[in-house]
Amino acid sequence: MNFVTLAIKNLLRRRGRTILTIMGVAIAIAVLFSLLSFNSGYEKQLSGELDSLGIHMLAVPKGCPYEAASLIIHGGVIPKYLSDSDVEEVKKIDGIEVASPMLLQQFYKDGQPHVVYGVMMDDVSRLKPWWKVEGRFFSDTEDNVMVIGRNLAEKEKLKVGDVLPFGPDGIPFTIVGILERTDTQDDDFHFLPLPVAQKMFGKPDQITTIAIKINDISRISEISKQLENIPDIQVVTMAQVMGTIMNLVGSARTLITSVIIVAIIISAVGIINTLLMSVNERTREFGMMKAIGASGLDIGRLVLIETLFITVIGGIIGLLLAMLGSSLIEAFVKGIIPYSPAGRLMAPEPGLVGLCLLFSVVIGFVCGIYPAIRSSRLTPMEAIRSNLE
Amino acid sequence: MKEEVISVKGLTKIYHRGSEEIHALKEVSFAIMKGEFAAIVGPSGSGKTTLLNLLGCLDTPTRGSLRLNGIEVNGLKERDLVKLRRENIGFVFQQFFLLPTLTVRENIELPLLFSRKNGYASQIDEVIGLVGLKARAEHLPGQLSGGEMQRVAIGRALINEPKIILADEPTGNLDSATSLRIFELFQNLNRQGLTLIVVTHNLELAKIAHNVIQLRDGEIARKTSSHGSSKKARS
Known about the structure:
The complex is a heterodimer of chains A (389) and B (235).
Chain A lengths: L2 H11 L1 H38 L4 E5 L4 H7 L9 E2 H9 L3 E14 L2 E8 L1 H7 L5 E3 L9 E4 L1 H7 L6 E4 L4 E9 L10 E4 H7 L5 E2 L1 E6 L5 H9 L4 E5 H44 L1 H9 L4 H29 L1 H11 L13 H28 L2 H6 L4
Parallel strand pairs in A: 4-9, 6-8
Antiparallel strand pairs in A: 1-11, 1-12, 2-10, 3-4, 3-11, 5-8, 6-9, 7-8
Helix pairs in contact in A: 1-11, 2-9, 2-11, 2-13, 3-9, 9-13, 11-13
Chain B lengths: L3 E14 L2 E14 L3 E5 L6 H8 L7 E6 L2 E2 L5 H11 E4 L11 H11 L6 H10 L15 H13 L5 E5 L7 H16 L3 E5 L3 H5 L3 E6 L2 E7 L4 E3 L3
Helix pairs in contact in B: 3-4, 3-5, 5-6
C-alpha cells in the first residue's frame, strides 16, 4: 500500500461527492479548453480565410465603414456600389497585378439566403490559382452558367450539368463546375459571370468591390494612397480587415473569457468546500493516523494527493468532453460572435491539452493546499477528541 | 534490575475553557518498568485518558517531566515526537478507528506506510496470525464483529514492533465474552515481553494487570501491585 492507494480508497468512500466534484472540475476545464482552442483556432482560421482570398486589398465605395468592408469577404452585401469605370482607373496604377471587379448579392429561396458572386473568372483564376473544379470554369462571356462551392452542392444535392431555376426571377442556369473543397467561405457561394449577375440583379455597370493583388507587397502603402486618389474609392487592406474583425469579436471574446473565469472560480470554491467538509469529517481519523505514526506532512500529503486526483481526473474528463462536444460548442460560439470564418474554429492542439492538464494540477494545488495545511496542523489530541458536530 | 521505560515526575495538565482553568492532572509521578502490565483506573473525569495521551506523546504537559526510554519528551519538536511515537508506541482506541475502505490486512499495514517501511509482508502475516484474524485478512471492517475490529486495532498497534502499547478503554465497546478474549490477547502479548498500559473501567481487566494506578480528580489516589502491596498516595 502507498499514499496513492490510500488516497484513492478514501475518495471511493464518498463516491457521490467525489464524482460531483470531478464533474465540477471537468466542466471548468472543458470550458477553458474550448476557449483556448477557439482563441487559437479563430485567429488561425481568419488569417487562413483572408489568405485564401488571394488579395492584398479591397477597393470599396467611399463612405463604406470598415466593418462593412470586412463583411464583404464573407458574403455580406452593402448598399453602395462602384462602377465598371473605376476598375479601369485602378488598372492604370503602376504595381497592380490583378484588379478583379466583383458584385455581391443575396437572394432568398425557401427562406434560405443564397450568396451570389458575380466575378470575372479569368481574374479570379489568377487570384486563386489553387482553385480546382469538377467540370469546368465559365468564360466571362457565357450566359446563364455558374460554378458553385462544394458545401452548397452537397447541401442541395447538385451535380455538374444540372439545370435549375436561379435568382429572384427563377431563370434556368446550368451548373458547369463544382469547386473542390477549399474549407473557406467559397464552399458556400454561387459564382456567376459578372455581366450575368449585374443583369440578373438589375445593377448594370455596378460592382460591390474590386479585389486587388499587387506585384510587390512592400509597396502596399504607396499603392493604397494612389488608389484613394480615385474619387469613388476607399481602400481596405487585409491587415485592416483582420484588425477590424478581431475588434468586432473582441467584446464577445471578453464575455466568454469572463464566463470562464467565473466558472473556474465557482469550481475552485466547490472543490475547496468539498475538501474542507471531507477534512472536518475525518478529523478523528487524522488524529488516529497521527497516533499510529503519521506526521502532519503525511496527512497534508494525503489530502493533497486526493485533491490532485479529483482535479486531474476532472481535467482529463473535461478535455474529452470538450473534444467530443467541440462541434456543439463551436455552433454555440458561432451563434454569439458577430463574424466567424468558415471551417473549424476549434483547434485542439497538443500544447493546449498539456496546458489544460497543467492548469487542473494547479487548481488541485491551490484548492488542496489550505485543507492540507489545516489537517496537517491538527494535534492528535484535538483530532481524536473532536466531535463530529 | 528491570529497566524503566516510562518515568513520570510531577506531571500536570491544565486545560483552559474560556477563563476557567481545568486541572486535568495534578503533579502525578510514577514509573513503569519494561514488560510491566499497568492499568489506569478511576471514575470518569479523573484524568485517565489525559494521562494516557500524555504518555503517548499525543499531548504535551503543562508542567512536569515525562521520560520515555530515557528521553525527556517535554520540549521535543513535533518531528521528534512523531519519530518517538513511531518507534516506541502502539495505540489502541475504544472506537477502533479503522479505515472502512481498507481490508484487515491494509488497516494493520497502515503504520508501516507512515514509517516508510516496505517489504514487511511476512511480518503483517505474523501479526494477523497473532491477533487470530488469518481467515478475515481480506475482509473490510464493516464485515467484522466488534471484537474482531478491536483485534485489527491491536494488530495495527503491534505492526511497528513498539516497546509500549497504550490502550484507551479497549473493551469499552465490547461484550464481556469478547472482552475476555481481548484480555487473553493482552496477557499473551505481555508474556512475550511487551509493556502494556491500559486505561479501563473494566475491573476484570484491571485485575490481570501487575500494577493498578487509581486516579481521582487528576491525582493518584492509590497504586496497587499484584504482589498485594497497596500504597495510598499522599494527599
